[in-house]
User: Fold these one by one.
Assistant:
Number 1:
Amino acid sequence: MLHIKCPHCGLRSQNEFTYGGDATVKRPELNKEISDQEWDNFVYLRKSPRGNHLELWQHISGCRQWIKVERDTLTHEIFKTFKANEEV
Amino acid sequence: MSKNFRLEKGGLVNRNKKISFKFNGKKYFGYEGDTLASALIANGVHLVGRSFKYHRPRGFFGAGVDEPYALVQMNRNDEVDPNVRATEQELFEGLEAKSVNCWPNVEFDIGAINNFLNKFFPAGFYYKTFMWPKSFWYKVYEPIIRKAAGFGSASTKHDKERYEHKYEYCDLLITGSGPAGLASAYAAAKNGAKVILAEDKSRFGGSLLTSEVTIGNQSGQEWAEKIISELKSMPNVIVKNRSQVFGYYDHNMLVMSERISDHLPKTEKYVPKQKLWYIRAKEVIISSGSIERPLVFGNNDTPGVILSSAAKEYLKIYGVLVGKKPLIFTNNDSGYETAIEFKKNGVEPIILDTRKNPNSEIIKEAKDLNINIKFSYVVVAAKGYKKVKSADIAKISDDKKNLSNIENLKCDCICVSGFWTPTIHLASQSGNKSIFNEEIDAFIPNQSKQKETTLGSANGIFTLEETLKTSFQKGNELSKKITNKENKISIPSIVEKKTSKHDKFWCVPLPKGKYYKRFLDFQNDVAVSDIQLALREGYRSIEHVKRYTTLGMATDQGKTSNLNGLQLVSDVENKVVPQVGHTTFRPPYTPISIGAIVGREIGKHSKPTRKSPMHYWHEKNNAVFVDAGVWLRPRYYKQRNENLFEASKREAKNVRQNVGVCDVTTLGKIDIKGPDSAEFLNRVYTNAWLKLPVGKARYGVMLREDGIVMDDGTTTRISENHYHMTTTTAQAANVLSHLEYYLQLVWPELNVNVVSSTEQWAGAAIAGPKSREVLQKLFPDLDVSKEGLPFMGYMEGNLFGVNAKIYRISFSGELAYEVNVESDNGIFMWEKIIEIGKEFNIQPYGTEALSTLRIEMGHVAGSELDGRTIPYDNSLDGLISKKKDFIGKRSLSKSAYVASDRQKIVGVVPLDKKTSIPEGSYIVKDAKAKLPNPKLGHVSASCWSVEYDNPFSLAIIKDGKNMIGQKLFAMSPLKNKTIPVEIVSSHYVDPKGERVRS
């Protein structure tokens, strides 16, 4: 079980969190004209890197904040965690 | 020879307390402190089971977790427990156990015929033998294999025992209480660190309990006792025996299984049988010791062939002799310690040492004791079927290839020692890539991967002096980093015997013309010849060899067989062991009971049960409940002998004719506040929200970004910047997360706050043509007329002194209202509604009637919003705004979503107006078409229409919009039904929606 440092609450066990996928994906702006390809990339296409991965987690059984976690997908090492609005 | 193998004195058992127990129906006696194994050996019982494949007689091989043979079926307090290691099971009064894998009994086992047919059971015989004829698989082969497979049989009864989980944090977790564990725990505890010391056995001390050493002026055993009692008295230390740390997981999380009551005849009240500890440790010290390696020779599985260290343990801890004419077969000095113990207790051992001319203190001591030692000698084969009776021994040439002077020697046990294998399982599970150490012919941990440090013989250090020195030092160093305190400890002087180098020799060659089975994996019956065959057949990777031959795949996970297997592969392949590599170590290190893994989260406790504030009223009024997510909801209220069908029909009918009341507390509720709330809702929902006036509710549909409907519900504008959102019961939590996601990550500029208020409100839906009259009586001061409170209107009122919120919304399609009060007032509200509604024939209705009402109205719910449908499919496309953007809108223009024959919701009525259509049925054009019959869609929900008194279903089918009026078939292969049906509009009742607006 991972040990994730919530930037708001401190170190907590993984079972307090839910996983939220790739944190680098940016939602296209509202009302913006974009191609089918661009939209599909946003909705469906994700990289599955072996190694460093910036991802979203929600501290769902804690402060309910969405946070960003920089984690190694191979070793599960967590390098750093960020608040939702924090620049990485 | 006497059947009593217990010495007159000695050992750590309590000779003042005699214990009776039964094995295979026969009564025996042992002492308090015995294991089942030691007590059986003391009674001269060596035949405890039959082997897995060949059903060869099997006895005891070890004295602890490494035991591959002695698995028994336990009967304790009317509960059966299969796969219990007799070497670990402590004796208690009235214990009952029996042998497994034998029929009719262990002495005479029919399956033993396999042993004589062993030519037909080579490695991979499953793959080779059961290939043809194909039809035999289900009828003949599989039932036979199933019957033969496994050790023991699990109970089919509910387990009455209680199992618990515990979460714990500590500075240092120390796994094993041998010299390394004790020294490091002591040093760390002295520095003030929070320490957990875990010992698998009942006694602390590990090898100190059986070795002849002096620490300071004490024996190893006395020193261990002193340290343990001191640790136990320290408030910062948790000392646990009967506790196996079996898994090392991510981020220094380790799991330990504590067997609290297994050694007692009965679990005490309020005490669990076992407890699983989830331990997050800052530092982990692995002091799990080492396991003696077997030497491989002919028939080396015969009962009476035993590890030399186990023989010593039975002697020193239990005062039990494994034999009275022991033969010690060793390639190192450890065997001598066992021989000396025998000699000291008046038994004459013979030592066969594979080495030519070794020299050490301990060998000298053995010589001085006049023990018969034969150098360059090996055991060729054990003789005897159910117990060793003699051994063929031989002189072995210097190159270890040729045998000479073969002779037969009488003996009743053969104690083998092939040197030591460090127990690196935990280190390996932590991610540590082990390295092969040529000195000891075994793998040891390498660079730490997590925060683990391996000490003592688990790290390949076999001298006590170095073990204690490094362990004191590491315990001090690691704890000092955490506590910033240092309490220097002087390391006591140590007296131990120096040993000489072991011999790399481990497998005795077969003499000419003899084809003895030489076993590597004792539990899975894998012999040298099986590995050789696998290699001849082209298997190369050790992982493949393992799976093909099942080497190391038994419940003991190859604790005794692993290294010899690798050694053999490398010998045959002419490689060195590190090139072959070892197979992956996976948790659990020892078998863990399913009960312990599940803990208290079983049955009703597997998830919380949520009950509405009106629950006890429902109970009192004969509600039959149904699980709705984690909620318990009334399904129907039973009157007299009604069944579900009759009751729900009555309830639904009463809503259509009079008025009903339904507990809707379970609906998800989210409170939304902030100046940008309207803008936020406008982005979340598909329809327009900016112009919703205060005091009005609106129905909304929200999508996922991929265009699939996520949820629906009504949201009411309570005041300028305050909204009350409702969600479906099932999606409540997901919707809240979804909203938080967009507010926190995507549009942080929106000034909006959301919070779940599901638990704050108790809700009652009052539905039916007479609902307005009920409402008026509930709120005599309010104008609830058609004009005063129109459809989708909202007002606040006073319900006999209780604040209430009234929403004119409807799920049943009738004139209806939802009244919410604070949860604590829920029961008050409910009873008032029932009381006042009496004159209007009000009846409570459950989820079944609720479903009926919504299905015949064509209102969609969870069975249609199933994560596969877009708004169009549910006839919700009218709610899609063309003017604004919202979550998921861009996806709706996908070609598949706008296809002209896109699936759409329809109504389905059986032509005979009698046969109910099972939910999940397929809709097909031609009932007689060849399989697979192309399906048009599926039936999502079915009910008995109370309006028309015939069955009615909703279905989502291809090109639904052009299917109205068609005659098709509903097919349910599951229920074996084919029903001719007509497709109608999904809005079966009141298609214009006049009733809700009345």
Number 2:
Amino acid sequence: MQNPEKLIRKGLPRGHLKDLMVKLLLGAATYGVVIIALLLFAKIVKDGAPVLFKAEAPFVDFGFLLDKNETLHVFDDSQGVRHQLPASRYNEYLTAHADQPIYNEQTFSYSGGGIVGPIVGTILLTLGSMILALFFGVSAAIYLSEYAKQSPFIHAVRLAILNLAGVPSIVFGLFGFAVFVLAVPVLTSAPADRSLLTIPLFMGNYVISFQGWNSSLIAGCATLACMILPVVITASEESLKAVPQGFRDAALAMGATRWQTIRKTVLPFSLPGILTSSLLAVGRVAGETAPIMFTAAVAAKDDLPWESLANPFDLLSSQVQALPYHIYTLAARIPASEYTQRAQYGSVFVFLILVASLSFGSMLLRAKLRARIKW
Amino acid sequence: MAAKAPALHRFTRQGISLEGGIRFFFASNAGLTIVILVLIIAFLLKEGLGFFPGYRRELEVYRVAGLEFVDLSRGPLTSHEQLASVLNRAYYAEINGRAAKELKRMLESSELFNAYSEGVAPPRDLILKNLENGVDPNSEMLVQLRERFAERQARALNSLPPTPHLTIPERAALVADLRRREVTATEDPALVTVLADEYGAARQRFAEPLSGFREVIDSFESAGSDLSDLVMDMTETVTVTKEAIQRADILEKDRSSLLAAAANTKDPAERERLTADAEAALAETPDIAGPMQTLMARKPDCAATHAALREALAGITAKLPSSLTRPEANRLLQAAHKGTPILLAELAAAPARINEWRSDKPVPLSMAIRRFLTGKDWVTGGEWQDFYGILPLFVGSLMVSVVALIIAIPLGIGAAIYVNQFSARLEQSLIKPVIEFIQAIPSVVLGFIGILVLGTVLREVSQVEWLAWVPGFPIEERLNIFTAGCLLALMSIPTIFSLAEDALNNVPAAYAEASDALGASRFQTTFRVIVPAAYSGMLVAVLLGLGRVIGETMVVLLVAGNRIKIPDFSSGIGSFFQPAHTLTGIIAQELGEVPLGSVHYRALFVVGILLFVIVLGINATAHRFFNRTPI
């Protein structure tokens, strides 16, 4: 070989330009998605943040967070000054200025006041459904991870979890409506006509009537819990499995029973992991609209859930407002105008902050947990 | 020899123990998932299966009362009316097309005037109200108001819309006119009136050469009046019959529930009373035969009217011009040309169908099922007849999903390949959280964005002139299939991205190393080795993304436009810019309003069953591919 240098091709390889183009294209697709997501977030922050924050101390407009939702009245007084007042202050204004006429009056439903009702409703729904889902989900996960051996039953459970995870949320809405709203048993002295079955108890007039819980907080919580159950089970099982087998072996070797082992050595180490991954589920529960549309949510409600109740248990059987349903109402039922923007973008902003902080918190906690626990 | 149970060790405790109880408790919680799944299926079926017998009865009433017979004539009549409206639109499109210049001038001038009026409206209204009240207007306040008016006027005059088709002196004159304008003036500015007259004259001028076309259209329209009268006449009779039958049905239902109650009651007196009530509620059988006979007597008349209309139309449509000068008008005319033979064929077939029709032909259950699965109408709460045909909803869901997947697959998989193969670690730590964040956005927020932002933006983009070549542009409806598809694409990108990225990650490093060792470039390794190895994983990603898209409710409910109609496919790709309704959307929209246990209520549960089956089918397919992953 005379000149080995000749064998090495100089310059850029063949097809270099094509490769570069493909890479640019893929990069453009990726950053396109990223930019669209950021633009979306920026739009909501730009229009929503001014509703919640203000320039002077204390910088947060607590009125929007803590006032009840009301109808907004927009009108001119005879001096030509435009007023925007929620219904209660509008009535005060009318009594105070009874002798003066008002002009160009317009009303916008759900657009005045604040959103404390929907916020509280969402918190109650989320809390209730997470309590149910965590209780049943973690128990199921303990069985799957600690007790189960290969059996047809376990196979069926895994198949059910897989399928439940794929059921569309609106079908859960239908299910919740048919089961929790219309069919589950209640203890009552006056069964409804549509009751599927009544079982007399021979205690006074009381019967067990399969007539459902009506549209109520508890029905909504149960529906949401069913929906989120597969997520909680899968996440919990993963956390339980992450506890090294040696811990269990050691506990059992010390003579602990199966349950003692689980309670003293497995659960304490997996609980942080379970709670962290459940935060993600909380975000999803808080964001769902379709399952609660017919089972719990109501568009307008004057009282907060716990006000004007005969006994505390009525809280469970009362309907609640919810943020996602409130946003749906604001978006679908009200024509957009400059006066409804505050309510619309403000609610979306608060909601997005809530959900984003949940998922962000879960991400951070997970990273922290991974760094801390090293088996 | 009987098999003996294996002897237990003597240390093993027998009977119920705490440990066994705890174990049973956990096992039953695991079994809860099965219970929930079974409950979902059972209750969907319980509420849904009653639909088909109920719908069959409705269809039976539809036939027995003669509504179906009237619809035989109504079908051709509706097509005739539609065709007449297409011809009318073609006529006006032609005239407006020829008078386009005058039309634009008129529109621009009145738009400018409207913008001005809107700008000054609030103070102007107040001044007018104060003046008309009769009470002595507070002069000080009036001065203040006039000041505000002048201020608003100056602002309004500074922000007038552009008028490219008005000459500069014309515009200046109009603006000057507005500046001089009295607060109380109500008549239009001079130029607006002049241009309106100009446009009227132009229309008149261009209508003259088209008078032949106009006459053809008029005679086309009036030819249908006989059939229309006949249909109206028959409609009245059959509606009465249908109401009578429905009343009888309700009474019969009451009676059977009373009888059932009587059978359950133990008290004999009470039972006696309930039975008596039931007897009293016994409805007299409504008279069906009489009205039906009069209806049947009309058969020859009906057939003759159809034949006559056909003959008349055949003569008239031959006189239609073969083409028009304006593209839009010509498109409509060609559509009419295409539609006439169909209408004529429909009319020709009608007499035979009318003569064949019999009210006593049985309505089998299979017909209810067929009409549900292949029906093109979802009509509910109407006065005439409710139809539950799934097709428009299914097509809507399908089209939205197609749009979403066409957008999401390249973006999601492209992003996965980029992030997995070509990006630096720093880029990854930026891109991944953002895409995960998209997943956390609740769907109702995306729907909200679609209504308030994306719909408007898309429509504005579609009205840009140099984009007019895109089929379907300019978009007529702000909320349509494409808008919903875009948002659903955004929703499914995270699913597709993360699963596809996992699939790429799962390709063993040995593949890439072997490829490198053979001297392949980075790109050859990626596209010839790694991506093909991850194909099945990517397919799973796409299928699960599809499952998510089809099951999504809030976005389509808010953004897809909610028009229950199969989109008009004659406009090709443009049909993706029409509004539609979807399987999920219809449940969310109508379940809150239907009476419990009605046929409509049950129909929604059948839609739910269908949705459940579709999504489970998709997921099952995905998991089969998942298990088949060769690695």
